[in-house]
UniProtKB/TrEMBL annotation:
Keyword annotations of the record: DNA-binding, Transcription, Transcription regulation
The protein's name: Transcriptional regulator, LysR family
Gene Ontology biological process terms from the UniProt entry: positive regulation of gene expression
Coiled-coil parts of chain: none
A single MF term (Gene Ontology): sequence-specific DNA binding
SUPFAM superfamilies xref list: Periplasmic binding protein-like II, Winged helix' DNA-binding domain
PROSITE patterns on file: HTH_LYSR
Signal peptide segment: none
InterPro entries per record: LysR_HTH_N, LysR_subst-bd, WH-like_DNA-bd_sf, WH_DNA-bd_sf
Pfam families xrefs: HTH_1, LysR_substrate
Residue span, HTH lysR-type domain: 1-58
Family assignment from sequence similarity: Belongs to the LysR transcriptional regulatory family.
Length: 307
């Protein structure tokens, strides 16, 4: 039994006769008759009762047709999937991001992407940079957005950006009177810090230690967004990625540049030894556009204030 036998049987069931089935399949009536006879012999089933020129499906024939239709639905699904893969890659995009990007930048990009590709399913997975490296290298995710590259990771890596941290403080704070804050300004200030082990935390500590500034380090948090929320609650000041800080800007929060620069790198991670499909490349283009636009909008108020 092969696909030609099944096609002939299905055509006869749908068309009602061998002659009509032959026209549907662009072949001859004797060829259809031969294929049906071979199929009955192969399966051991009596598929049709012959009544003159008419073919009447038997109960076995009807039962077999139901199974054939189920198989054809599956084949049609495969055909649709193949067309989608040809046009869109897998039709699904899995993004892994650390919280500073996954809670701020990436959702904006997904909105833009879905406006262009509404038929594509996008899933966003937020976790630490170490986990993002693992998810991307194992091909669980198509793209990773992380703040550091794991030495154990086999991911292909591109730099998205490296931007300077800004100071985030409660509205009305004494430091808000200054346009630019220096490490020396934080002497004795309650400081909400990233947890030990974070690379940016080490940079921050070094900036203050270099000038002998002692902060009040009573609170630590794993992510910049949490630090900013604590600032909004009036619990202290912090240094944060400017895009993260932007989402907390408002009547309860003040944001100022900080010197010396403490840099927040952001990396794009790709699965190793894999060609980058169309969907991933389109998403990365939008990600870069959104990221650059956000940074430009952050700079505009500063430029205006200098005038």
């Amino acid at each position: 039994m092969n696909l030609k036998h099944i096609e002939a049987f299905r055509a006869v069931m749908l068309a009602g006769s061998m002659t009509a089935a032959a026209k549907e399949l662009f072949t001859s009536q004797p060829n259809i008759s031969r294929l049906i006879t071979q199929l009955e012999r192969e399966t051991g089933l009596l598929l049709f009762q012959r009544s003159g020129v008419r073919l009447i499906p038997t109960s076995e024939g009807n039962a077999f047709f139901r199974e054939v239709e189920r198989a054809y639905v599956g084949l049609q699904g495969l055909s649709n999937a193949a067309a989608q893969i040809k046009n869109l890659g897998s039709g699904r995009l899995r993004i892994a991001a650390m919280p500073s990007a996954g809670l701020t930048l990436v959702p904006h990009v997904i909105k833009r992407f879905q406006a262009l590709r509404p038929e594509v399913t996008v899933s966003l997975h937020v976790n630490t940079s170490g986990t993002i490296n693992h998810w991307t290298s194992s091909q669980f995710c198509d793209l990773g957005v992380a703040v550091y590259r794991s030495e154990a990771s086999t991911c292909e890596v591109e730099m998205l950006s490296e931007v300077a941290a800004v100071c985030v403080m409660p509205a009305g704070h004494r430091l808000a009177k200054k346009r630019v804050l220096k490490a020396e300004d934080f002497q004795g200030e309650p400081f909400i810090s990233l947890c030990h082990g974070d690379g940016t935390r080490a940079q921050m500590d070094e900036a203050f230690d270099r000038v002998g500034v002692e902060r009040v380090l009573a609170i630590e948090a794993q992510y910049s967004a949490i630090c900013c929320e604590m600032v909004r609650c009036g619990m202290g000041v912090t240094l944060a990625h400017p895009i993260v800080a932007r989402d907390f800007a408002g009547p309860e929060v003040e944001i100022r540049p900080f010197k010396p620069s403490v840099m927040f790198p952001t990396y794009l991670l790709f699965p190793p030894h894999q060609p980058r499909d169309r969907l991933t490349l389109e998403f990365v283009d939008l990600l870069r556009q959104e990221h650059n636009e956000l940074l430009e909008n952050l700079e505009k108020p500063r430029r205006a204030s200098r005038r």
